[in-house]
Amino acid sequence: MSAQVPVIVTAPLAQPPADGFTLSDSTQIVSPGDETLFKVRNIIIKGNKRTRPEIVLREVPFKPGESYPLPALVKKFEVGRRQLMNTALFHTVVVALKSFEGYEVDVLVEVKERWYIFPVPYFKPVDRNLNQWLVEQKASLSRVNYGAKLLYNNATGRNDKLRAWVMNGYTKQLSFSYDRLYIDKKMKWGMNVSFAMGKNKEMNYNTIENKQAFFKDEKFVRNFMSMTTEATYRKAIKTRHRFGIGFTREQISDTIFSLNPQYFADERKSISFPELYYMVSYYDLDYIPYPTKGYAVEGGLGKRGLNKVMNIWQLSAKAFGSWHTGKKSFVSAGVHGTIKAPFKQPYYNQRMLGYGSMFMQGYEYYVVDGVAAATVKSTYTRKLFNFNIKIPGGKKREPQRIPVTFYGKVFGNAGYVHNPQPGNNFLADKMLYSGGFGIDIFTLYDVTFKLEWSFNQLGQNGIFLHRNSIF
Fold first, then answer.
1. What's the angle, vertex CA 314, arms to CA 309 and CA 318, rounded to 5?
2. Is the pLDDT at 3 greater than 70, yes or no?
């Protein structure tokens, strides 16, 4: 006897659930008994036109031949759905009991794949955030990189990623990267490679009063080349290890050297050095691009250089957690810390707050250099509303929809940066605070726009735009 069982775990199109943050409200379970064991007979995969079946099965926390009580199996459906959505390969994922015969069940995993290849024009301001480019640099087109970019996700069907850039403008650059080349049948070990080379006629040569100081010339003032090879290991679903080795060569002009002889160590105009690092990450989030529940941890240790010209150890760690406070609201908190040793470092190694993922809302126009830093952030977020933009389909294509979700939030930040030689940079070696409120807009392909009104302890406030992720 075979019958359909109404146990369905699904997700909206590349966004958190529309009516809250859990699926339990709309999930129905039909079970003859909570302790009755059901054996998984088959796992049927549908919709994977490009993605290989083993990539899908890698994320599912059960295998054919295993037995579970039905409620426990349904919970594993949600874990599998969440893991598959977090691969960024699919618009939608359905994990369901397709049929059962006695105490044996067939499980359906149905996916709708994303578009994977994007040969697109490239246009991006080089400044640290959009406000710095719009306000301080007056949206100058001379501070924009433009060219062509190829993004090829899932190139071989194994969730690998190919990236290639040909850039002109502020930086003339060629770069290439390829991630997740699996080298074993169980797909636990993989390889990542990257290469970049380029040159600039303008560069940031120093920091003065917590502002980047730039110099521009008719000739090139900076040349660089870097390459990296990584080995990755992922035995468990949520934990990933990365072991990397790299090499960097960089050269500055005579003018830059005269403006800052301590740009590199030992008063040099050029530098070449190897780099070794190890990183580990653990992600247990409901949806990585915009998490509303769960936690994540990352840590890393790296070593640059082998002599006095380049000699630095760097230890970094960050953690993030999010908890539901209601059907449509959640609170989140994150910490981020970095320390570099020895403390005496050239300007090249002193970038800290305001660069990359270490930043504080309300300090978008400032940077704080140093050798040790920590930030703490907390946010209360509530879903406001959502809607879909419908796109008509053709004769052979189904109509598409673009989901848009709006969230309101309030936030607070605190941070500290230690610099043994701060000079006239007044934000170093003091507690920093900021806060504010804003709106997050989440839409197709994990794109997040953030509009924030932030206040800092200097008595300054403003409206800022961001696109970076929470973690």
1. 155
2. no
